[in-house]
Amino acid sequence: MIRTAWMAALILPLGLAAAAPARADDGPKAICADRPTKGTSPCTVDPGHWQVEIDAADLTHDRSGGVTTDTGVFAGANLKYGVSDRLDLELNLPGLLTREVSGAGRASGLGDTVARAKLAVVQGAASISLLPFLKLPTASHDLGNGALEGGLVVPIALSLPGQTSLTLDPELDALKDAAGQGRHVAYALAAGLSRPLSETFTGSVEVWGAQDQEPGGHVSQASFDLGLAWIPMRDQNLQLDGGVNLGLNAATPGVQGYVGVSRRF
Description:
This protein is mainly beta. Helices cover 7% and strands 57% of the residues. It contains one helix and 15 strands; from the N terminus they run H-E-E-E-E-E-E-E-E-E-E-E-E-E-E-E.
């Protein structure tokens, strides 16, 4: 089911690209961040501007097979620079990562670094971007797999009646096998709805699914995600947000909660 939905979402941009008009040049856009929720927005940072999106605290709790795992990420940041009205370059800087597993102890250190570039293909009522990324193995051995990995996300946003926005984020990754030096495919799809709740608050609801085709055993995950973002009327360059992700199967962490802040300069 996840595979069929992922393929449909990847094909959908081809039809939308032919039908949707290009966005008119209306001047600077309001801040648009790739948070909250797991989905990624197709919007890019205005040319000549910097934007930083900080994951202030991200806590995950999971209990499976009698083993409890608590993971935390603190002060992770996604740094962006707008190259043109259709392209920005991004560097996802690792925050402090902590992991505690019952019976196995605790580990902490910096996580992996991710370099990305977002290219807007279509802008308007239907917006589509291409987001290739490359993971650089900067995490220590007990917190990462030490492998260079990459993939492609295709962020899609459709404007619906009632100020509602539908987002789709099909993703395809090339990952290192857990055993040996081979590579395998993983794919994911996030589908979400968001709409303004007031002049300053926007709420989001999302369903996310992923499958890792690891040769040693395929892993399927799914979650139901809720997010809330606040942009003050007096400062459209600032966003505060938070959210919670609830695992829908045994392979997915049970509860994940986070808060963060985004700022455009």
